[in-house]
Design a protein that fits this description.
The complex is a heterodimer of chains A (135) and B (288).
Chain A lengths: L7 H21 L23 H23 L6 E2 L5 E2 L1 H22 L5 H17 L1
Antiparallel strand pairs in A: 1-2
Chain B lengths: L9 H26 L1 E3 L5 E3 L3 H8 L1 H31 L6 H14 L2 H11 L6 H8 L10 H29 L3 H9 L4 H29 L3 H6 L11 H11 L3 H32 L1
Antiparallel strand pairs in B: 1-2
Classes of the chains: A mainly alpha (135), B mainly alpha (288).
Amino acid sequence: MTVSRRWVMPLVVVLAVYLAATGLLATLVPAPDGARDWTAPLVAGGWMAWTFPTAMFFLTILFILSLMAVWEYASPGGNPRVGLLRFETTRGDRLFVSLLGSAFIHLAWLGLVGPSLWWALALSVVYAVGVFRYV
Amino acid sequence: MERTWNNKAWFLVLPVLVLVAFSAVVPLMTVVNYSVQDTFGNNQFFWNGVDWYQELLASDRFWESMLRNLIFSAVILAIEVPLGIFIALNMPRSGWGVPVCLVLMALPLLVPWNVVGTIWQVFGRGDIGLLGYYVNALGIDYNYVQDPFDAWVTVIVMDVWHWTSLVVLLCYAGLVSIPDAFYQAAKIDGASRWAIFRYIQLPKMQRVLLIAVLLRFMDSFMIYTEPFVVTGGGPGNSTTFLSIDLVKMALGEFNLGQAAAMSLVYFLIILLLSWAFYTVMTNYDAER
């Protein structure tokens, strides 16, 4: 049974919250000499040592999870299927495989190529699309 | 049939989510933050980018610890699994011997890890330890403090002593669940002891064996306390496994950034292996 729900509003809410949180984080970035120091600690002396890039990393993970929740709301059941790996996976499994694989792609790139990770990110996106399409 | 979607059940999961957030997610976030920064204490942090990761991936120290850990896990699995099966096969199935054997098997599992380390540290000493004294008396030069090979033997024997019981108990649980009818049918067919093991007992133990291998691999890959108490990672770095190296780096050298990067790489490897084992186990269940 396919349940179709109104998913546009939840999606807009998730996007709006993500953008608002990004904006809020940007305002927290310190600007000691007028120019923003994007990698400086967001809270000086804070033990968790938050910075803008790491906060954005976790915010993006949360955003992706929220998108998955919207997807699940729009089409419940997790869309289980047997793909390339020859066992059943839901879209949650496919997200996990995508994120874990992406982490190893970045590590391999760091170890074998160099510290510029944009190509590793692009490769990870291609990999994730492949996982969601074929696994 | 109309399916009912009741999202109120999520509220029942909420306390666990809060607990996990405080015990796992907050520390994980902190480690990620530390892994891209450097600190000299007093909560003063300086951005370091991915340098710690690059340094870690290029360091011999990390790969050597990893290799030692993989060899250790492979060796203890190669000993504990066959030994556990052998002991389980020879344990009594009825009578007073059953509770006696079960209690004896459970005893090592009840001993705390640091106590196991202390027991073997004393046991292996040449001057006051029973094992060390008699092995030396046999003319074998055994000194786990100075000889890397002896240190490895001690750590492996200690792990086998501590954890083979787990494999035994799991295999025994698998064996006692086999109905007598299987054995009677094998007897009528004139099956040999090996055939009974190969075609009746081993398939019936497959699931528990998978759990045993999973538990022992994960545990041995994260081993810290026992070898740390016995050898402290030495002599030299010969028994420095990943977790020991990590603690040395974080607390001994106060190199929090590099230790955080190493923790995350270690975590990703554990996550990958756990997922692989979990997938194999759940698919095995589905096939059954």
